[in-house]
Structure formats: structure tokens, C-alpha cells
Amino acid sequence: MNLYLYAFLALELVLISYVDLRTKKISNLWPLFHIILFVALKFAFPEDYPLALVHFIYPLSFIILGFVLFVFHIMGAGDSKYLASLFLVTPTPLHMLLLEKLLTVTIFVGTILIILKFVKSAAKIRAYLLTLHLAGLKSEISSRFSYAPVILVTWILFGVSLWH
Q: How confident is the model over 48-73, as a mean pLDDT?
């Protein structure tokens, strides 16, 4: 991966993470920008950005999985669209490494958030469990959080893996 592209996308992610933390929204302009960037990268580096199904497996998977997660109020639509477009501008040979870093960071952050939620609301969660009040339990343990910072940390670890 080109260091300039990596650095540009890292700066982009810092901005998006800040906006996502403040507003809980990721603009649709970012994925559109990535589509345009993908076309430019396709001409500049045709071997890294093929117009073959292999390049689109991860982006399409994130659109589909993101839609399912959005329907179940687990992930925001902007998060899944942004992730799909980020994989679009990532060279095909690096997709698996990026996915590996994304899963690692997501599991780590998710585990910490769940533990914190259980510690903070232990009495309520215990009461809901004892009374089998599943709707209350769901509302107590579910939370929406900004996912862009998770993507930013993923991108940083991805970069460390690339240039280590």
C-alpha cells in the first residue's frame, strides 16, 4: 500500500472519528469519495485494484452484514457503508490483514464495553435476569457507540503491520 494513501486515509479517519463521536453520524459523502478514489486508484495501480469479483467480496460483505447489523440496531448504517468503502480503496492483497485487525480491535473494544456496562449496571442487570424481564435486560445492556474510532485504531494497527 502506498504510504501517502495510507496517511491520507488515517487523517480522514481522525476527522471522521471526531465527527462520529460528536454527532453519531458518518456522512454518505465519504463512501462516495472512496468510490471516486477507487476509480482513480484502479488506473494508477491496476494490479492492486482489479475489476474482478475478488476485489469486491469484502466491500459487498460489509454492505450486506452492515445492513443486517443495522436492522438489529447493532451498527449504524454509516459505519457499514464507510467500512465497505474503506475496503474498496484498500489493495486486494491486504483485505484479509485489514479484516483481521478489524475483528481483533472490535472484539477487544466490545469486551471492554460489555464489562464496563455490567459493572456499572450490575444491580439492574441482576434484577432483570432474576425476573426474566428480557426487554429490560436488552435495553440495559445494549448501547450504541461510535464505531469510527474503532476503525481508526484498526487502521493504525494495520499500518503498524504493514511497515513493521
A: 92
